Amino acid sequence: MHPKSIIKRKMKRGLVLEGGAMRGLFSAGICDVLMEHDVWPDGLVGVSAGAAFGCNYKSRQPGRAIRYNMRFARDRRYSGLWSLLTTGNYFNAQFAYHTVPATYDVFDREAFRQNPMEFVVVCTDVATGLPVYKRLDEPDTAAYDWIRASASMPLASRVVTLDGYRLLDGGVSDSIPLAYFESQGYDRNVVVLTQPEGYVKQSSPLMPLMRMALWRHPRFLEAMARRPAMYNAQLDYVRQAEQQGRCLVVRPDGPIPIGHISHDARQMKRVYDMGRTTGLRYLPAIADFYRAR
C-alpha cells in the first residue's frame, strides 16, 4: 500500500472522572480550570459524582457544580434525612435532579446538545452486578435520571428503573473506567482520582446492613463484596497505564477533607478550591498531554 493512501486515525482524548460523593467537588474544581483555559477532551466518562458534576463540562458551565451545592447545602428539599425518610433518596430525586437544573441553576441544555464531546455515565445493574455504560447526547428527563442512577449510593437511594434496567451507583462495578474508555478508542486519557497516591480500598463496614437492605439483589451484593479488590486492581491498571504514558493521572496530594455527605458549604468550597489549585498546577501537563501525537 502506498504511504499516501494510509489514513492516520485521529487521536481521541478522554477524561475519566471517578466518583467519591462529595469528594467529587475536587474533580469539579479541576474541570472548571480546564474549561476556563479552553481544554476540551473528545469524550468524558463519569462515575457517580463524576457523572453528576462532569455533565457541566459538556454544557460548558464552569462554577455550576459548586454554586448549587453551596446554595442548597442545608435545604431539606435538596438532600438530608427528611428527603431520605419521605422519598427514599437522600438526594431528592425530583428537586435535585429536575427542579434545580430547570429552575434554580439552569442547566444549559442547548450547549450540552451542541458540544460534540461524548459524555458517558456508568451505572450498575442490580440484577447482574455488572456495569452499564450510557452515552448521553440529548439533555432530556431520561438523561438526568441516568446521571441520578450513576450517583445513587446504596442505602441512601432507591433503585432507579431505566430502559429495562434497575440501576444503582456505577462505582460499585466500574469505579475508574479507564479500561472501558480505552476499549472505545480513547488513547490519550486524563484520569482524575479523588483518593491520594497509596490509597488502598477496604471492605465497607456497612456490608451487613447492605445485605439486609438489598437481599433481593444477590448479584449486586456480590459486586459490593468484590468492590475493594476491583478498585485496587483498577488503581494498579491506572498506575501501569501512567508508567507507559497512556494516561496522565491527577490525584489529590492527601486525603480530601470531606465525607460522602456534607451540609457544610464552607467545607465544600475548601474541597472545590483544592481541586482548582491542583488543576492549575497540572494545567500545562494536561494541555501538553492532549496535544501530543
Which of globular, elongated, flat, extended, rod-shaped describes the shape? globular
Instruction: Give unreliable regions as ranges.
Output: 1-7
Helix content: 40-55%
- What gap, in angstroms, lies between the N and C termini? 23 Å
Essential attributes:
293 residues; disordered N terminus; 45% helix; globular; alpha/beta
What does this structure look like?
This protein has 293 residues and is α/β, with parallel strands linked by helices. Helix content is 45%, strand content 14%. The chain has eleven helices and eight strands. It is globular and about 50 Å long. The N terminus is likely disordered.
SSE topology sketch:
Blueprint: E1 13-17, H1 24-36, E2 43-47, H2 49-58, H3 64-71, H4 81-87, H5 93-104, H6 109-114, E3 118-125, E4 131-135, H7 141-150, E5 160-162, E6 165-169, H8 178-183, E7 188-192, H9 207-213, H10 218-243, E8 247-250, H11 265-291
Parallel strand pairs: 1-2, 1-7, 2-3, 7-8
Antiparallel strand pairs: 3-4, 3-6, 5-6
